[in-house]
């Protein structure tokens, strides 16, 4: 980010520059230059990456000091969605502190691929990922320009009215303006190829503005969604090569404090594509292979084409499937997760991501406790996934806790707890309380620094569109839109009710005035129907 002066300082700098260039620049207004500079503080994606990396590092240190300082984000699949999130956050909370955006590979595959909707299996074109990062930051920067433009227009009105107190207050707001630009944690999947391919894509993502990149230990050409079956992991050295590749990309581009999130899918992955290369007994590769499902064999009775390995002086045959994948022993998932996490942190990762099959503080905390025996400040990014049935999971957790405590649960059917019949019960209310406090509890008890929801706006878009379609194409017709959308936008002061303004019409009018003066043909005059949405 370029060095930005206070408002009056920017005006003075522009005045000096205009004077230096003499008569040809006589029609350039210093205050207009200052306003345009303030509205575009971030000149490149690398400016954004360096600025937001510093924010994340400060937030990580704050969390280490007090787990109550955890951070949050929602996934965004379009620049407008990300922009509206940050506008809403500033509106309701007055600050973007500890609020990020998440870029989900799942949503890129499902919504942004030129091939059309795809499953989360790294089949989408990888250039769509840096393209979405750039788009998100373009919309966030436009949110800055829009809000500042409003402050500038209010400042002009205060000056015209001779209200010096109001003018000074607005100038203070301009000088202390908080940008909508926040960190994005961006999903690089399994790297889309070998380590060189990972490095090249990471560079594009960083150049687009990403300060934090999340990479997973699945094999790139067999990658599955974290909540699908058939996941296949790679030996640690293969994964560490990609971690190093991402770090090199950060360092090459001068984002020295870029954040690397190492994700392990080992808890739900029962397969590996290859047997790790062992140099000596007990090394990392040998530990990886020790989890394989094997059976001892007689060297004199080996079948044709079978693969054998030596373990403790004995020949064993790893269980190999027709797909040529090797199977891990059942029940080894948590041990593999712990080894993955310790190894990643010891080799350059900054944060961990453990993909789980359910949101359970005790399960996550138990694994983190084991990791922290080796890496005391280990901390997680955690997916508060829409793939979990949160209602059923937490009702069953309460049911199980009460059963263990000897409380009478005979009125409840554990397998039917999702039913609306239980909504008003004591058990359901306790489950909702636990859902509400899950992030706070998990930050305190399970080492979770960052809570995200991968694809919330995928679901909200579907739900709101379904509701609107049902009403608009039904008996309510136009009332279905007015009653449930427009009227609510006005009453809740949703900024995009003035959609022309949100799309940049007022910013364009300002520029027209800078460029053409009195000759400017502006869109925001008295006959613009957007004026019907003036505040009550």
Automatic annotation (TrEMBL):
Keyword match Lyase: yes
Any one GO biological process: carboxylic acid metabolic process
InterPro entries for this protein: ICL/PEPM, Isocitrate_lyase, Pyrv/PenolPyrv_kinase-like_dom, Pyrv_kinase-like_dom_sf
Keywords: Lyase, Magnesium, Metal-binding
UniProt cofactor note: Can also use Mn(2+) ion.
Active site per UniProt: 225 (proton acceptor)
Catalytic activity: D-threo-isocitrate = glyoxylate + succinate
Residues at which Mg(2+) binds: 187
Transmembrane helix among keywords: no
Any one GO molecular function term: metal ion binding
Cofactor or coenzyme needed: Mg(2+)
Superkingdom of the organism of origin: Bacteria
Official protein name in the record: Isocitrate lyase
Upper lineage: Bacteria, Pseudomonadati, Pseudomonadota, Alphaproteobacteria, Sphingomonadales
